[in-house]
Amino acid sequence: MLSAFYFSGAQGIEGAQGAPHGNQGAPHDNQGAQANQGYFHCESHIDRNDPNHDSGEEKYLLSGAHGGEFQLEAVKVSDVDEKLRQYQNEIVSIIHKYLLSDDILKLIQSLGDLAVPEYNPIFLKKLITLAVDGKNLGKEMASVLLSALHIEIFSTEDIVDGFVLLLESAQDTELDILDASNELALFLARAVIDDVLAPQNLEEICSRLPPNCSATETVQMAQSLVSVHHAGEYMRQYKSIIQEYFFSDDIPVLIQSLKDLAVPEHNPIFVKKLIILAMDGKSHEKEMASVLLSSLHIEIFSTEDIVNGFVLLLEYAEDSELGILDASNECALYLARAVVDDVLSPLKLEEIGSRLPPNCSATVTVRMAQSLISARHAGDRLLNCWGVGTGWAVEDTKDNITKLLDQYESGGVVAEACQCIRDIGMPFFNHEVVKKALVLAMEKNGTMLDLLQECFSEGLITVNQMTKGFSRIKDKLDDLALDIPTASEKFSFYVEHAQEKGWVLPTFGSSAADCSH
């Protein structure tokens, strides 16, 4: 009868087929002693024509090295086959009983009685193979069971190894099931959603599959399903957060809610959802959405987040969810208003347009927005584009900021100036205070830096607001230099001072050259 030998890592192992006990074919002189103890080197004999043979499971029939040398334990191939065959028969019975009884504890006890944890990946493969060939209830029970097994007795590595085995055999007759690839992708995605696997485990599984095999497409499909599911979950949470904001008008609470979610990669989805909900509401909500976009851009959203959000919105503009009367005009107003509020630059509108499908109606929306911002008195009109809200208040606030700064410069008290800023009640617009204070400092060499320091120390003006104010001055230095020839030199000094005091973000330019262009 043929003999089989199992081992871990077979590099450098050679031997003669059917070598008798002794040191025939031994690569080292000291192998004779091991041969007399029943260990010797030979070629592994596994009958790959055996109906129970599974190439993916061979690694679970291997044992390790001892003392740095590979030692091969001689066992009968029938012993190995019988052990695996008995295990497979047992788990098929165990799985069928579970699918009938829905008794997870009983199943876990049965696996414990088998006492072969090294076969856990084989159990996972068999479980899903049987579930995929069954009804939806059985598939759901299999996913629930995987979650319970991961908590109780299976390691993450067991789960990963099991899915690798499953996917490697996905084209075998055992898994000759209609739409098997989609079914397996669903099981993989569900494992991630249930916290049985982490997203990076899907990458690990994919890396262990043969290149260019169809199973890698199954893993990629699972990754897409996970992404869509998470996006859907966040869409529901975003809707609740936005509706609460429309009710309370509390921007700091909304920003904190987004920070608590801790998924900045989904910021563009939030932008899209915000505008969709606002467009389906009243003029007040539309104005609040524009104000919120400005505040988010100052506090936590990058320009790229806003751009990507508008691209998502415009791509979706013709879908049923956006079946809103005059939606194209409203989208154009949001785009144009974002430019007026310094959320987007005019060049960003061109970028948005270039990323849309050619000849689609959304490109007309972008061109309409460009026309709106190039019209006479565009700023005033767009600040009041919804007919209500803070459009008029922004202009009024600018006047109030100018008055309080002039009063402070004329001998006012720092504490009173800070209180006036609080009374304005538009914290998302405090970058205007920074901008005007810096211009006055350039013109009059007064004590504006002392006021900014107090505002920063009290938390009245945040580092993001400070950075936004400095950025606005940086962008207008050439124009300022026409009236204030030393504007560039003075601004460089202010930036160095701000960097030392921690007012601005570290990424903000600190050299004169950076700040003068």
* Average pLDDT level: 79
Oligomer: single chain
- Sequence of strands across the biggest β-sheet: 1-2
Q: How do the helices and strands follow one another from N- to C-terminus?
A: EHEHHHHHHHHHHHHHHHHHHHHHHHH
Structural class: mainly alpha
Would you write up a description of this structure?
With 517 residues, this protein is an all-alpha fold. Helix content is 64%, strand content 2%. Strands 1-2 form a two-stranded antiparallel sheet. The longest helix has 35 residues, at 214-248.
Features:
about 525 residues, two-stranded antiparallel ribbon, 25 helices, elongated, disordered N terminus
In brief:
With 517 residues, the protein is mainly α. It is 64% helix and 2% strand.
